Amino acid sequence: MASDNLHYYAHPFARRTSVGVNVGGVIVGGDAPVVVQSMTNTDTADIDGTVAQVAALHHAGSELVRITVDRDESAAAVPKIRERLERLGLNVPLIGDFHYIGHKLLSDHPACAEALAKYRINPGNVGFKDKKDKQFAEIIEMAIRYDKPVRIGVNWGSLDQELLTTLMDRNQAAGAPMTAQEVMREAIIQSALISADLAEEIGLPRDKIILSAKVSQVQDLIAVYAELAKRCDHALHLGLTEAGMGTKGIVASSAAMGILLQQGIGDTIRISLTPEPNGDRTREVQVSQELLQVMGFRQFIPIVAACPGCGRTTSTVFQELAQTIQNDIRTNMPIWREKYPGVEGLSVAVMGCIVNGPGESKHADIGISLPGTGETPSAPVFVDGKKVATLRGPAIAEDFQKMVAEYIENRYGLGAKKPEAAE
Known about the structure:
The chain is α/β, with parallel strands linked by helices. The chain folds into 2 domains: 21-295, Dihydropteroate synthase-like (TIM Barrel); 303-411, Sulfite Reductase Hemoprotein, domain 1 (2-Layer Sandwich). It is 46% helix and 17% strand. The strands form 4 sheets. It has an 8-stranded parallel barrel with strand order 3-4-5-6-7-8-9-11, surrounded by 5 helices. A 5-stranded mixed β-sheet has the order 13-14-15-16-17, with helices on both faces. A two-stranded antiparallel ribbon has the order 1-2. The longest helix has 23 residues, at 180-202.
């Protein structure tokens, strides 16, 4: 049974088969791993600022980056941004986010239409009344002309009110068998599916369509995507919109998307965190990666296990060491990915006392058990399940950091041989 559980977490069995979509060389859906996406919050017309933020997001691990294209100045900047990124050696696919006048911007700025890897349109505001289908069709025709995929992104904050009203009226005429919340969910789902069908009728192939249906409440997101996944085989972009700031946004997004991902729903994800004023935009990328990694779906970065601390660990040495190693790993990963293939699978343990320290350290590739309160001031180090050294003195932390660096070089460096599995 234990081996079955390990297989279960390492290879999720419930991934829903969907149609794979090529987004600038990154495959979304099909048998491909779940893709991490993010979005800039710069004014796209600010070429320097946007290039810098796209580069930061990509270095952090974002495989797709969405940018706002809301006016002529931003549309004109897109090909320049693409060119600058390529000069920097960054081939991250750019997704254009269009609302209201996307049809006009794509038509007036063919270089923008060509430079983008995907278009994102919202059926709730692509056009209104008799202009809605016409302007939607114009964008789809542009996508066909330039051979670009499209994400049809429904958002309940900008839902097609005509469709919602129609469904509300039908529900009322039927004696209101559904609650208002259920009708809202159904309107979101139908908006996505009707738009996808229309896009295919116009001529956009199914392998050029990604759907999303974003809401801001956890239970609504789970219900909407679970039903949407039953009704279509389109690749699905997953995200809790307006998730919020800090721990609230992280917890809400992880709770909703964790459940859906475990059911095999979701081919690309974005954690939509509200950053602190002048905060680090790459935080949402880090959270997305950690969600996929802790669930066993992908490996992005070495895992550092550390105990939470208790009355036996009044010293802060283990906390400081764990934080230092984690920060070093994140800083060095862009280089390590190239220099040390496979290093993302490394596990490091930094433990604070003798209770679980030695055992946890043995489970890691390399681990240290620091002395707790009242314990002998020595720290055994374990490599591949075997004790290899005992560190003492004021430089324990620095000595262990050196051992981690040596382990990485010896195991993952060019020509290195992987160690045999511990008995």
